[in-house]
Amino acid sequence: MADRFRMPAEWAPHTATWIAWPHNPEDWPGKFQPIPWVYCEIVRHLSADEDVHILVNDVAAEKRAYSMLRRQGANLARLHFHTWRTDRVWLRDSGPIFVKSSTGEIAVTDWKFNAWAKYNNHLNDNEIPSRVAGLHGMPSVQPTITLPNGTEHRLVLEGGSIDTNGAGILLTTEECLLSEIQQRNPDLGNRETTRQQLEQAFHDHLGIDQVLWLNRGCAGDDTHGHVDDITRFVPGADLQGNTIVTATEPNTADENHLPLAENLDRLHSARNLHGDPFTIKTLPMPAPVFFANQRLPASYANFYIANALVLVPTFNDPNDRIALNTIAECFPDRTVTGIHCTDFIWGLGALHCMTQQEPA
To answer: Residue 128's closest CA among 184, 168, 83, 68?
Structure first.
């Protein structure tokens, strides 16, 4: 698909946003009750702007969700329910990664999902991309690599582990894709071989010509280093995707300080496909968020870009306003809205983790 298809930037026009309705109390143990209402608020904003596809486990769940969304004031005409069972709700990682051709054709890349190489229950989630492709009648490909012994290895990849500017450059972290902890593709060989094969797969299936490798993600990240919690492409003043916003932590006693400082240094040293530096903007981190003695991956970088708005996680923190203003500067043509995520982040994901955009 390399010659014809490329993964668009998230700020490119959408046909819809895909989400899955929360149903597993164990994803928010002791805090599940408010979570569906957080979803209602998110869908209310999105449905004013674009269609929203919502996966539900059964008809009863659809009726409950529909009733709640009606009460919350969502645009019901833009909601599309699908009774497809899910294990979890993080469609950024389990959902399809859409690609688009130069002639406007949309296709699905169906990477294997194995629940971040950490959990056993993922078989329902792994079926989501093929279901979406079948629903739309879209072409679909399952990226694979032929191993030295001749067997085919289906590549594991989560959407939250990558971010692209839509112009051939991709961000990711070594901690997520190259580490032996929660190792996604252990059959690919050593660290350098894995790096080379993943870069080739990104080229072949996502139209990527350059990969920017950061080192580590943020503290508390259950995925072991997803880039969407720390560093994101934004359009920039020239709309060319040469601007990157990245999280920093000035407190030297905080465990995020050194990893985020190293990532910032790598970004300042990086050059784009034309040999020019990127424009780098920094985001603060909120004060550490803990629940049940566990640090949670609270970050403003986990924002979601819709057609006319950007939804940003907030945490009742003084840095909320700084983060919202910084992101508003990056998106002068969109409304930037904060979504309170102090309870939501106990599920170890936020707004970007729960959404997946379908390009127009």
So the answer is: 83
Q: What DSSP designation does 186 have?
A: G
d(CA 329, CA 309) in angstroms, rounded, equals 13
338 three-class SS: strand
Strands 140-141 and 106-109, by their bridges, are parallel
Name the amino acid, one letter, at 158. Answer: E
Residue type, 290: F
In angstroms, the CA 87 to CA 120 distance is 10
Sheet holding 14-20, edge to edge: 79-83, 51-56, 14-20, 356-359
The β-bridge relationship of strands 97-101 and 106-109 is: antiparallel
Q: Per-residue DSSP letters for 38-97?
A: HHHHHHHHHHTTSEEEEEESSHHHHHHHHHHHHHHT--GGGEEEEE---S-S-HHHHS-E
Interhelix angle 35-47/59-72, rounded to 10 degrees, is: 70
At 175, is the secondary structure helix, strand, or coil? helix
Cα separation, 302 vs 345, whole angstroms: 11
Give the three-state DSSP class for 62.
Answer: helix
Instruction: State the DSSP H helix or E strand holding residue 324, giving kind and residue range, or none if neither.
Output: helix 319-330
Phi (first) and psi of residue 188, to 5 degrees: -80, -10
Helices (H), 137-256: 174-177, 191-206
Which domains, and CATH codes, for the chain? Answer: 5-359 (3.75.10.10)
In sequence order, which residues have a C-beta less than 8 Å from that of residue 316 and are 6 or more positions away? 340, 342
Give per-residue pLDDT as tens, 210-245: 999 999 999 999 999 999 999 999 998 777 789 999
Rounded distance, CA 347 to CA 195, Å?
30
Which element (helix H / strand E) includes 263? helix 257-269
The distance between the two most distant Cα atoms of the chain, rounded to a whole number of Å, is 57
| Measured distance CA(231)–CA(170) in Å, rounded | 11
This prediction has a pTM of 0.97
What confidence tier does 148 reach under pLDDT thresholds 50, 70, 90? confident
How far apart (Å, rounded) are the C-alpha atoms in residues 68 and 147? 49
Residue 57, CA distances (Å) to 23, 24, 52, 310 in order: 8, 10, 16, 28
What is the per-residue pLDDT for 157?
A: 98
